[in-house]
Amino acid sequence: VLDAEAARRGTTVYLADKRIDMVPELLSSDLCSLREGEERLSFSVIWKINPETAEIVDTEFTKSVIQSKAALSYETAQRMIDDVTRQDVITQGLRQLKAISKTLKQKRIDKGALILASPEIRFELDSETHDPISLQDKKELETTSMVEEFMLLANVSTAMKTYSFSPKFAILRRHPAPPEENYTPLLKATESRGLKIDVSSAKALSDSLQSCTIPDNPFSNTLLKILTTRCMQQAKYFCSGTLKKEEFYHFGLANEIYTHFTSPIRRYPDILVHRLLASAIGVDPPDSSLTDESTVLERCNNCNYRHTNAQRVGRASVELNTVILLKGQTCIEDAYVTQVKRNAVRVLVPRYGYEGFIFFDLKEAGVTLEYDDELLRLTINGTVKIAVFDRLSVELKVVEPDVQHQRIQLKLLEPVIPDISVQQTDSPMDTSIDNKNNQNKSEKEPLSKKLKTS
Predict the structure, then answer these.
(1) Interhelix angle for 220-229 vs 202-211, to 10°?
(2) What is the pTM of this model?
């Protein structure tokens, strides 16, 4: 019954204020979660690695018992690594893992792995109402990348092992290369600003993204990676016997073969991969349900469907909580143009991860609009030009067209256009959400993250 329900759910769903677990909390938060000083049953991938080159000398898969020596947050682990006075065994181990992970990451990038981005915000929630009251600043830490690299390595190692054991029924994950037409909006946007993006291969695209930037626009490279993300296709689970081997390729990771092994408490494919791996190393008999192509394919398709829905509801939850956070406030923030239309521009507000249109009403007296399709530029009243990647200043507030609908409205503040721009009466600091909650955070750092296309 437990397995059937986990199979039906397929994944844990993450909302802004809570999560909906795939398995009961007793498993996800206790028995299957590492705790300091407590023994836990586990399935381990153990490597012998050359610390200088990060080359894998030997790989072992085994059922094991782990007793964690320390429970560390990413922030705590980072502080330990950075504290030069700390020379204890755990800290030295973290430093060695960090060094190896940096080599592993560079090798992936050299192969053509993509380092993309997508907007992400996190909320501080009221302890009683669970309503959002402010934003959490998210910092990119070396320890986050360190853990990610070894998880990716474990997934690749497991994919190779399970496929060699069961070439017809291995549960793998592929990320197809985007068709050429997917890149059209990206190429048009970059060409309009004199930027050169090579999309002939994953390696060429990766190299282009690392070097492209617009002078005096520090957010331009992040925005470019966000726009590139939108060109990508979805990664999918599949049964190895249903596709040719050359179709296994994971475009985002630049890997010939890949699967998910590291998160069996939140992804059902990982559970199936664990069962297949247990059979591969001879500790469990073969699972008959994993030797039937139609059954494996059905499970993969359900997990793909559930994963897509989980992403959608997660984004909807963030949008809802952003509306709740901004309600009753007028906020002034930086925004960046992502799209230009004949009577509007679409902008991304990094601080809130919010994207929406600013419309220009031709019915207003004296308003003229000239749209340049080649330069993706809108000229307003003959003088003010707004193009893709431009930085604007905008006003955000929640409006209620009717009692059942609330939405965020964007209005242009700068550049100043007479009779169109909103008149600024307060400084951005006086009208910010952070000031409202006495956070006194003057920086407006874009809250972005690396997109795990895995």
Answers:
(1) 160
(2) 0.89
